[in-house]
Write a structure and sequence with these properties.
With 171 residues, this protein is an alpha+beta fold. 61% of the residues lie in helices and 13% in strands. It has nine helices and four strands; from the N terminus they run ααββααααααββα. The strands form two sheets. Strands 1-2 form a two-stranded antiparallel sheet. The chain has a two-stranded antiparallel ribbon with strand order 3-4. It is globular and about 45 Å long. The N terminus is likely disordered.
Length: 171
């Protein structure tokens, strides 16, 4: 058993040793915001989820995932999200923390949603930090269908997540 634990610790270390500072900041931010669960559970949107919020059946069909495996998968998502941040139509240079915030948004809400978030993009391009924070705090609702009618409800977890992102924006 000790050999397995040492091997897992070594794997996690190897995944993070070659990571850039930006990758580490982004990885830590997403990992904190998502939380890790080794077993499949239903998220607040009612989707089967495992690891750091992974909803693909590629992962959820296993029903169990080690933290080391989840760390490795998350790092691939981090790289993809950071590439997507670089493709945003921005006229300003982002700090590493701001890039991590946007990567977290892309991870959670999807690349398409963020790339089409005109008000958020405008706020970033304006350079007005208060406007950016206000826009980040708009992303706190989740779609629910009640009696066949679509409604949007504020989710406490998203309020907390977005508040952390808004706070990190200026650091």
């Amino acid at each position: 058993m000790k050999c397995i634990i040492i091997a897992l610790v070594t794997l996690v270390t190897i995944v993070n040793v070659n990571a850039s500072d930006l990758q580490k900041i982004t990885f830590d931010l997403i990992a904190r915001n998502e939380g890790f669960r080794s077993n499949v559970y239903l998220c607040s949107a009612g989707k089967e989820t495992i690891g750091y919020g992974f909803t693909s059946t590629l992962y959820t069909s296993k029903k169990y995932m080690s933290k080391a495996e989840a760390d490795k998968i998350l790092m691939t998502y981090v790289d993809s999200c950071l590439r997507s941040v670089e493709q945003l139509k921005l006229n300003v240079k982002l700090t590493d923390n701001q890039k991590a915030v946007m990567a977290d948004m892309i991870y959670h809400f999807g690349s398409g949603a963020i790339h089409n978030a005109n008000d958020l993009i405008k706020a970033i391009n304006s350079g007005n930090s208060s406007n950016v924070k206000a826009q980040l705090m708009r992303w706190v609702k989740q779609k629910k269908i009640v009696n066949g009618k679509v409604t949007y409800v504020t989710v406490a977890g998203l309020v907390n997540r977005q508040a952390r992102l808004a706070q990190l924006w200026d650091k």
